[in-house]
Amino acid sequence: MDGKPFISVIITAYNRKEFLLNAIKSALNQTLSKDKYEIIVIKNFNDNKIDKFMDENNITSIISDGIEGEYPYIALNKSNGEILSFLDDDDLMRENKLEIVYNIFNDKNIGYYHNNFEVLLNNNIVYNKLINSPRYKTIEIDNKDKNKYIYYMEKKLLYVNNSCISIRKEILKPWSLYLKNQAANIDRFIFISALLSKFNLYMDNRILNSYRIHNDQTGVLVSNNINVLARKKLEFINKSLTAFNNIMKMANNSRFEGYVRTRITNLKLAYNFWSFENRYKISLNDYLDYINNKDFNEIPRLIIYKTPKFIRKRLIKIIYR
Q: Of the N and C termini of the chain, which has fewer Cβ atoms inside 10 Å?
């Protein structure tokens, strides 16, 4: 390794200080030898307590600002490791995670690793009906079989949550400028970059991260006011559509173009579900994409998204109360 760390742990924080120190400590408290990994924290604020702790523990601190994609873009250029292992500021990693990541990536055929997670609410492990630990068997997916498993991975959330993802840096390098322009959905970007690569994927059912639910999140939103909840959801969906249009440029003319198209259609359908006024037009070809790409699991969604407004409001009350 020529004295360089094998893994770079990338912790990102935007306007949130409350949980960051705990995230950093979880990355420090690893069974893997300290000479095999480095920790880089990229945030858009200064904090005397956090900055002093990082300085005392030889943690690289970078101050930056901008859209979401600029944070991993900076990490891509500043990190020394062959492997990037991400951690959001409000999440935690188990003490043996990096040792497992290190051993997995000793196999040079593996380019992407995703582990399972538990859900934390008020520091207690919960089973939440909106987001919970998926159940699946550990599997290594060969490059040639990625299309075969693509919607299985979708169903089992094997792309979700930056904190569960580790990837070879060389996979992201060709897409660095796209990454810099990614407005949201960084986990999706990394996952699709891995799909487009020559490397195998490793999906691990072991729970190695804690995913924290709280009021300051952008993707998981809760409110007793349906109109407020709908507005926040629509803002997030529109931001995601911008992000997926960026990803579509990467996937054009690849074997995953159809998959990305169905994700864009799915976002438009989600917008139509949450919007009580404006709606996206969905063509027959958009629906046929689901059939042509054998995405049969989501067929019920196509019906639910087209239900009348009063039924959608009732469903929202039931699901999100």
A: C
**The model's pTM:** 0.91
CB 175 within 8 A of CB 60: no
CATH top-level class for 7-213?
alpha beta
Q: Which residues of 204-238 are buried (b: 16+ CB within 10 A; e: fewer)?
A: bbebbbbbbbeeebeeebeeeebeebbebbbebbe
CA 154 distance to own-chain centroid: 12
What one-letter code names the amino acid at 70? E
Pairing between β-strand 200-213 and β-strand 110-121 as defined by DSSP bridges = parallel
Residue 153 has a CB neighbour count (10 Å cut-off) of 21
3-state SS of the chain is CCCCCCEEEEEEECCCCCCHHHHHHHHHCCCCCHHHEEEEEEECCCCHHHHHHHHHCCCEEEECCCCCCHHHHHHHHHCCCCEEEEEECCCEECCCHHHHHHHHCCCCCEEEEEEEEEEEECCEEECCCCCCCCCCCCEEECHHHHHHHHHHHHHCCCCCCHHHEEEEHHHHHHHHHHHHCCCCCHHHHHHHHHHCCCCEEEEEEEEEEEEEECCCCCCCCCCCCHHHHHHHHHHHHHHHHHHHHHHHHHHCCCCCHHHHHHHHHHHHHHHHHHCCCCCCCCCHHHHHHHHHCCCHHHHHHHHHCCCCHHHHHHHHHHHHC
pLDDT tens for 12-44 read 998 888 899 999 999 999 999 999 999 999 999
Residue spans per domain, the chain: 7-213, 226-320
User: Which residue type, as a one-letter code, is found at position 241?
Assistant: L
